[in-house]
Design a protein that fits this description.
By secondary structure, the protein is α+β, with helices and mostly antiparallel strands. The protein has a single domain, classed as Alpha-Beta Plaits. The chain has helices spanning about 15-25, 60-70, 70-85, and strands at about 5-10, 35-40, 55-60, 85-95. It has a four-stranded antiparallel sheet. The N and C termini lie close together (about 5 Å).
């Protein structure tokens, strides 16, 4: 069953640090069965707190998504994301 990691950017602290994050996060997907579906396109918040942007990445299943998220390459990128902005990150199973 497919799984999705959803990133919701809520606040930005440092644009340069986020650019460094992006430079590492994309390549961290190499070797993982991942398919980016949404990458900071136009966004309209219909309910809840305002979102500044979103990213959605599809994986074959929850284990594959966790393997990427917990990978050494993504953990290095993740540290930059924490420094550059506040995000909500969800792992959800598809249908």
């Amino acid at each position: 069953m497919p799984a999705f990691i959803v990133f919701i950017k809520e606040r930005e602290h440092d644009a340069a640090t986020l650019a460094a994050y992006s430079a590492k996060a994309g390549p961290s997907l190499a070797g993982h069965a991942a398919k980016p579906l949404v990458y900071y396109g136009a966004i309209e918040t219909l309910e809840g707190p305002e979102a500044l942007g979103s990213v959605i990445v599809e994986f074959p299943d929850m284990d594959a998504a966790r393997a990427w998220y917990q990978s050494e390459a993504y953990q290095e990128a993740r540290a930059l994301r924490f420094a550059g902005a506040d995000y909500r990150v969800l792992l959800t199973e598809g249908v």
